[in-house]
Amino acid sequence: MVIGNMKTCPETGPKVYNVSEYLDDHPGGAEVMLDVAGKDADTMFEDIGHSKQARKTLEKFRIGVLEVPLYTWGLLLPR
Asked: What angle do CA 12, 14, 10 make, to 5 degrees?
């Protein structure tokens, strides 16, 4: 899943997580995570109001940062 945008992660961009090993342990159940698998989960993640501990746990599953062209954020015009 992908979490983040220029507002929530302006210095890095969206972060990519592989949470497949956490599905059975997720307090909200695996289904909610599977619904956003391979998608932008930023709004859903932020709207739920996850705790600092939840965010710390999530970082254990970060596998990278999604490279997004700056014009996607409205910062540059495409050529």
From this structure: 40
Residue 57 identity (one-letter amino acid): T
Q: Give the pLDDT of residue 41.
A: 87
The 10s digit of each residue's pLDDT in 27-76 is 989 999 999 888 888 888 888 888 999 999 999 999 998 877 665 555 55
Confirm if 36 and 44 have CB atoms less than 8 A apart.
yes
Neighbour-count burial of 46, counting CB atoms closer than 10 A to its CB (0-12 exposed, 13-18 middle, 19+ buried): middle
Q: Is 16 exposed, middle or buried (0-12, 13-18, 19+ CB in 10 A)?
A: middle
Angle among Cα 19, 21, 22 to the nearest 5 degrees reads 65
* Alpha-carbon dihedral sign for residues 57, 48, 8, 69: positive
